[in-house]
Here is the input.
Amino acid sequence: MARINQNYLKLPGSYLFSTIAKRVKAYEEAHPEAKIIRLGIGDVTQPIAPEVISSLHTAVDEMGKAETFRGYAPDLGYAFLREKIAKQDFQARGCDISPDEIFVSDGAKCDCGNIQEIFGLDNKIAVCDPVYPVYVDSNVMAGRTGAYDEASGRFEGVIYMPCTEENGFSPELPDEVPDLIYLCFPNNPTGAVISKDKLQAWVDYANEHDSVILYDAAYEAYITEENVPHSIYECKGAKDCAIEFRSFSKTAGFTGLRLGYTVIPKDLKTGGEELWPLWARRHGTKYNGAPYIVQRAGETVYSEKGRREITEQIKYYLENARIIREGLIAAGYQASGGVNAPYIWLKAPDNLTSWEFFDRLLDEANIVGTPGSGFGPHGEHYFRLTAFGSRENTIRAMERITKL
Ligand SMILES: *Cc1c(COP(=O)(O)O)cnc(C)c1O
Here is the structure.
């Protein structure tokens, strides 16, 4: 008899975004005339930049000619892409990362979710609370946690690090020492960033305790403020304790094209074992990388013209974020984020729960957002709005919220 992986049964039945979709659908059926504005989406909406599209066309044509056809991509990804990444994303910022420390992949979700496979099941993980659910869920599936407790919204055996108004939504060093520490900055869902000093303290802590930091920098390109680190490798000693994830999804609109990468420094060891060969082995065994044409598209993001076009898209989203944040604050809400991230994090008024505020916003303003409680217990009473809508809808949504 085949038996299932019992760990999957620990996951709560309904996924946040399917619950939202169900509620919105029910509302639409009851109110067919309602003009609903979606500010809950965690996906980009602008089309791929023209220069990137042009490189895709060229690469597609190459695949149709015997002289330029390409089959399987190299395990780590094409050198033409890894060299640009190393140079522009890291060396240009003073980070000593070389092309052979970069593993090109089809996205950060897979990498963030799969990286735990190279670590033993007896590792204790720590996560920001609230945060992107992939880190906890992938460890639940692997069996690195206990059961889910409905009342507290927590899995047993996981260290939740509260990100609250008091600590500027960036967690304190935990008393109980974790083995694996997931950090995500700029953060989804709070839009908060971590200062360089504070990140350095995390790196020092990890080196002191031989912990590994898994640093998700998927929103790095949204950073606008000085003294906010773009990469964990801007901190001294990070190459001895940290893995970093990046994505072309929110940066260049590749959510449908699929491209990301993971950095594993050659020096990185835990318990005396090097991690680079383990991930290389896993990559070689379970993974075929990203398609040639997509890696060419990724390369174009680093060209002068590509970079310029991408920067315009990010500016567009950041302007939406500004409109939302300032609109909320003017309307008397407590709101943060949106300066270095496409997410605005607001406190539900009148002590409403996240879901009560979700219903009020849908009912009275026909706006869909994301309940903060879906990202962790400390997300309760908070709410996420995203800057990925059109300018017109963003402005209209803020007019409606102001009138609430
Ligand atoms: C969207 C998102 C990702 C996913 O990136 P993909 O490359 O599209 O898989 C990773 N991390 C965070 C925090 C995200 O919000």
Summary: The longest strand covers residues 242-247. Residues 42, 107-109, 112, 132, 184, 188, 216, 218, 247, 249-250, 255, 260 surround pyridoxal-5'-phosphate (CB under 6 Å). Residues 6-47+305-402 form a domain with the Aspartate Aminotransferase, domain 1 fold (CATH 3.90.1150.10). The CA atoms of residues 182 and 262 lie 14 Å apart.
